[in-house]
Amino acid sequence: MLVAVIWCTMPSSYRTFRNSVPWLILSLEAVFIILFNVLFPYDGELMKSYPAFQDVNHMMIFGFGFFLMFLKRYGFSTTGFNLLLMVLGVQCSMLIDTFILLLQEKSQNHLERLIEAAMSMTAVVISTGAVLGKANPVQLILMTVLELIVFHMTRWMNDTFLQVTDNISMMHVHLFGAYFGLAFSSCFSEPSPRTDKNARTPKSDLLSMLGTLFLWVFWPSFNSVLSDSKWRAIYNTYFGLAVSAVTAFALSVLTTKDGKFRMSHIHSAVLAGGVAVGYAAHSIKYPWIAMVLGLLASMIAILGSYCSQRCLNPPLKLHDTSGVHFTFGMPAVLGALAQVILLIIKNWNNLPSLGYLVMIQVGAFCLTISVALITGLIAGLILNLRLFKTTPVSKYFEDQFYWEFPHLAVGF
């Protein structure tokens, strides 16, 4: 009787949430268990790959979990949903990768596949940042599955038809995640401009900066894990990150009215160098090139945030909660362009094959961004149907809609 009374007094939106989320999670996990039982006999593992897996796993769980934790009323959801999407997404990613390997009649070490599965989740986490606080857990879980399927198929097309190397096709993860997320976000209602729920507080900014530091420290491992020239990728990534951090501090002072550092600038721009250098980190022979890329990426991140918020987002009716466009999207475009330029310089004396090599890289870039935009828009339109019980605008950026607060605390 007591349970019935409590159930009747619950809001209808919560009852829907309680009816859908647990069963969706358990159904997916049951499917994963069955497929893992069929497809994953254990074999000998290369334990030398484990440190690389640790670094990538720390980035995904601690780094991005705290990195997106800047909304003052959405801290529980940011870290909790990030963990939920990660553990479901890695399993899903490994299964998709297994089907592709069976299609190609190839084999790969399980631990190396686990590393690639965790790295593929970068696309999902970046896309989640674009709709942070607006998408409900059902939408996020289904978006994760759809995005991973499309991202793996895009990688497969780049590898099979364009002969793009494995590490380069993985570096498209930032580009894919940012533009899939922007297209997905365009299908959601914009929050009221008068709301303060998506505001920052010093405490939320501090926790978010902690995530930035985790990502900054482990980013060289991310860029080098699939590279043949690991030492070169680590050096170049570190120098690119270092210069982007220095540039972020300088531009933050120059672009604020009172001439002080702004945490939101540091939070986003210090990582831009790692994103931009990722494409060519294994092939850059001189550190000054990586340093210039880091400087340009940081400038794009800070100055691009002003342009996006004032000139680009309003006409397109985009609301990019975390600024993934200028933190990951535009630096990735810079990195792809830099890779093409470096390829031209390297093969300048081999003109007959130069055009072919350039077209391959440009084609992979265009394919990735086009598929991301189209499928992100389709996924957004489908997952905003009434069937998926979209979150009301009045409940955007609100932890209390999903989490238990014994004392009904509204701050974080």
Task: Give the ordered list of helices and strands.
Answer: HHHHHHHHHHHHHHH
End-to-end separation in angstroms reads 35 Å
- What is the general shape? globular
Oligomeric state: single chain
How confident is the prediction overall: mean pLDDT? 88
Task: Give the helix proportion (percent range).
Answer: over 70%
Class from secondary-structure proportions? mainly alpha
Q: Can you tell me the residue ranges where pLDDT is under 50 for at least 5 consecutive residues?
A: 1-12
Radius of gyration: 21 Å
Separate helix tally? 15
Q: Count all strands and give the number.
A: 0
What percentage of the residues does DSSP assign to strands (E)? under 5%
Question: Can you summarize the main beta sheet?
Answer: none
Question: Secondary-structure blueprint of this entry?
Answer:
Blueprint: H1 2-9, H2 12-39, H3 50-67, H4 75-104, H5 110-130, H6 137-161, H7 166-171, H8 173-185, H9 202-224, H10 230-255, H11 263-269, H12 272-277, H13 287-316, H14 324-346, H15 351-383
Helix pairs in contact: 2-4, 3-4, 3-5, 3-9, 4-5, 4-6, 5-6, 5-8, 6-15, 8-14, 8-15, 9-10, 9-11, 10-13, 13-14, 14-15
